[in-house]
Design brief:
The structure holds 2 protein chains of 2 kinds. Chain A has 7 helices and no strands. By secondary structure, chain A is mainly α. Chain A is globular and about 65 Å long. The longest helix of chain B is centred in the middle third of the chain and has 42 residues, at 4-45. The termini of chain B are far apart. The model of chain B has no long low-confidence stretch (mean pLDDT 91). Classes of the chains: A mainly alpha, B mainly alpha. Chain A binds chain B through residues 1-2, 34-36, 38-39, 42-43, 46, 85, 88-89, 92-93, 96-97, 99-100, 196, 199-200, 203-204, 206-207, 210-211, 213-214, 217-218, 220-221, and chain B through 1-4, 6-7, 9-11, 13-14, 17-18, 21-22, 25-26, 28-30, 32-33, 35-36, 39-40, 42-43, 46.
Chain lengths: 222, 46
């Protein structure tokens, strides 16, 4: 299993090195915010991966609820865990950007609050899976589907309510509102983070399968 | 230039947590493989 990860792992490191080079040597320093704006290149990809991870939870949970295939349940569970890790990264990197620009580590701003709610929803999902006992996977799947409704809410929150947080600069009706080199740098970092997500998800799924195999072996040997 | 402090810690924390998590998963994966091997070995002996 680990040997199969060498190629995607190598690809990730290559894209990451190009991405980090672009962040610090290709993309210009933003005129108003200065160097701290470069947090953008890890903050936005972390948010993108968390949306992607929860979208996979959403799809896998629906398929599990329809067909009861444990394979999809495993994918949903593992993707939720990875999504929570990346949402944690969003909640960590955001304040490091907010403090020098807004003058505060945290504000009960619509974007920040809906992101915190998203994190709590999927933390509840993981708690339910860990301590809910047999049968909890179906309840968790329902939570995985319903919880995803918060993702579009996080995205539109800066438009619907007055917010300190900047409006989306990439997914924008007028097209990307970024300088060309900044946009290219962001795309490279988005690719690197997406490869990392797929790598982590495949390792996490392999762990779940091995745990299942161990339980089966223990049952047989007893 | 004072803002370098925030930039440094944001990048450091992010990569420390992500690589720490990946390392934890890889270690867990190999320990589970070892556990499966030992169970199979034990089953063969029995």
């Amino acid at each position: 299993m680990i040997k199969r990860l060498y190629l995607p792992g190598f690809l990730f490191f290559m894209v990451l090195i190009i991405g980090l080079y672009s962040v610090f040597f290709y993309a210009p320093v933003e005129r108003v915010q200065g160097v701290v704006q470069k947090i953008f290149y890890i903050h936005v990809p972390s948010a993108w991966v968390s949306y992607l991870a929860f979208f996979i939870v959403f799809i896998a949970s629906i398929i599990f609820l329809i067909g009861s295939s444990p394979q999809w349940d495993t994918i949903a569970y593992c993707s939720a865990e990875v999504g929570v890790i990346f949402t944690t990264m969003v909640l960590i990197t955001g304040p490091f950007w907010g403090k020098p620009i807004w003058g505060t580590w945290w504000s009960w701003d619509p974007r920040l609050t809906t992101t915190l709610i998203l994190w709590l929803i999927y933390l509840t999902y993981l708690t339910l899976r860990a301590y809910g006992g047999p049968g909890s996977s179906r309840y968790a799947a329902v939570l995985g589907v319903v919880g995803f409704l918060d993702v579009p809410l996080v995205h539109v929150s800066v438009k619907w309510w007055r917010s300190l947080h900047p409006t989306p600069v990439v997914i924008n009706p007028q097209g990307p509102q970024l300088e060309r080199s900044m946009f290219i740098t962001l795309i490279i970092m988005l690719i690197a983070f997406t490869i990392l997500y797929l790598l982590i998800l495949s390792i996490r799924v392999a762990i779940s399968r091995l745990e299942g195999e161990i339980n089966e072996l223990k049952t047989v040997s007893e | 230039m004072d803002n370098l402090f925030y930039l440094f810690w944001a990048y450091t924390l992010l990569w420390a947590v992500l690589f720490g998590y990946v390392l934890y998963l890889i270690r867990k994966l190999s320990s589970l493989r070892d556990e499966i091997d030992s169970i199979k070995e034990k089953m063969k002996k029995d």
